[in-house]
Amino acid sequence: MEPVDDDNSSHWAEPGVYTVAPGVYRIPLPLPHDALRAVNVYALTDGDSLVLIDSGWALEEAHTQLERALGGIGAALGDVSQFLVTHVHRDHYTLAVALRRKFGGRIALGLAEEPSLRASATPGTRPMRAQLRLLRQAGAQPVLDELVRAFADWRPATDESFWEDPDEWLTEGTRTVLPGRRLEVVPTPGHTVGHVVFDDAEGGLLFSGDHVLPHITPSIGFQPAPSESPLREYLGSLRLVRQRPDRRLLPAHGAVSPSVHARVDELLAHHETRLAEIGEQVAAGARTAYETALRLTWTRRGRALAELDVFNQMLAVLETGAHLDLLVEQGRLTAAETDGVRHYAT
C-alpha cells in the first residue's frame, strides 16, 4: 500500500495512505454499519519516530487496515510511540487501547473527558443511559421506547473493557511530538466536553477531530457524562478557532479542506439559522424538544424525524433540546418542567 497524494481524486473514505504534507499521512479506517463510513487517523513521522492523531475503533478490520497503511510508509504498529486522541468516542479512542496492550505506546486524552471515561468504564453500564434520561426530559417517549427495544438483548461484554485510562491527561499548551514538529493542544468543548484539536502552526495544519467537519455538522454533547450547555460550549469553541490563524482543515470524517475559517463560518451560520427555526416552532405551538424536532427537517435531504434510524432520531431530539436550552439562556424562550418533561414557551 504505497502513499498517494491527498488530492481529493478519490472518495475520502477509500482505504489507503494519503500524503497530506511532508511527514503527515491520512489513513481512513472503516466504521462498519456507520453512515460516516470511516474515521481519519493521521500519522506523523520524521522517518524514525511515529505518532498517531486518533486511532480508530478497536475492530479487526481497522487493525488490519492500519497495519497495511503504516507498512506503506515503512512503519509498523509497534513503532507508534504516542496516540494523541481528540476525544473519547470509541471510533477515536479504543483502537489505541488495543494497540497499547500489544505493543506499548502512550495514550494522551483531554483532561475534561475523564468523567465520561469513568462512566463508560463502570462495569455493567448500559449503553446511552444518560441519553435515555435526556430523552425522557425532552418528551421523546417513542424514541426512548425504541432505543430500549433496540438494546433489549444487551449484555455486559465478557472481554476486557477498552475504556482504560490514558497515560496522560492533556491540557492546553504546546508540546514537541517529534523532532522539529510542535503541536498546540487547544480545548474545544462541545462535541464532547473534553474534545481537543491539535494546531500545527509551522505546517499550517489543524487536526480538528470532530470539532470542525467539512460536510456535516457534528453532534452536540453525545457523551456518557453530559454537560449543562453543550451548544453554548460548541459555539464558543468555534469562535475560538475562528479567532486563531487560518489553517488547512484535517478532519476526522471527510476530506482535507483548504480553510478552517471558511467551514467554521458555515457552521456558525447553520446554528444561527437553526436557532431561529426552532424559536419559530415554539412560537407556533411546539412545547417540547421532541415536538419541535418532529416539525423540523433533518440532513441535507430534508428528511422528517421518523425517516431517520432510531440512533439518529435520538441525536436529532437531543440537538433540538440543546438549541432550545440555549434560547432559554439567551432570554428568547422560557422553560419549566412538569412530571420530568421540559416545556418551552416564548
TrEMBL record:
It holds the Pfam family Lactamase_B. Keywords: Hydrolase. It comes from Prauserella muralis. The keyword Hydrolase applies. GO terms for molecular function: hydrolase activity. The keyword Hydrolase applies. This is MBL fold metallo-hydrolase.
